Amino acid sequence: MSEPTRAWLRDAAVPAADLVAIREAVVLHGRQQAQGSDEQAIACALYEDGRLLAGAYGHTEFQRLYVSYLWVREDSRGQGLGGELLRQIEAQALARGCVDVLIETLLDEVAELYEHMGYACIAHVHDFVPGFTRHTLLKCWAARD
Question: pTM here?
């Protein structure tokens, strides 16, 4: 019996499907450790005349809403749509039994907006990206079980 042949691949040489497989394997392993995952995608979007105006998506799991992305079309910013979008997706999460929500941003002014909406900064990394601080914010609606 011959020895298996091994080869290191790097960067673009690693097939995209294998990158997805790696991510999924890490997530699955973590969920197996935590046990009882109830992960479910969550999304909310606003359309105007059939065009996407604003949207947010992420997932809920272990009674927590994780907001991955929140976006408002550039020509519609400054009108309160981002805050309304966040309230909409929070309402969905509350209906699912979530007790808190976690969100991140690289923009100081967005972190301040979230703080005005009841979020507390629980961590930040200065120069996460040169010139930007990564803010991790948490909003609690109820105590954890």
Answer: 0.84
**Cα 73 from Cα 52, distance rounded (Å):** 8
**Domain spans, the chain:** 38-140
Give the pLDDT confidence of 18-38 residue by residue, as tens digits: 999 999 999 889 888 888 889
- For the domain made up of 38-140, give the CATH fold: Aminopeptidase (3.40.630)
The backbone torsions φ and ψ at residue 99, rounded to the nearest 5 degrees and listed phi first, read: -110, -10
Please tell me the distance from the alpha carbon of residue 142 to that of residue 145, in angstroms, as a whole number. 9
Token look-up 């749509």 returns 81
With tokens 């966040």, the residue in question is 86
Q: Which residues contact 52 (CB under 8 A, 6 or more apart)?
A: 45, 46, 73
Under-70 pLDDT residues of the chain: 145
DSSP codes of every residue in 1-65: -PPPP-----GGGS-HHHHHHHHHHHHHHHHHHH-----EEEEEEEEETTEEEEEEEEEEETTEE
Rounded to the nearest 5 percent, the helix, strand and coil shares of the chain are 35, 35, 30
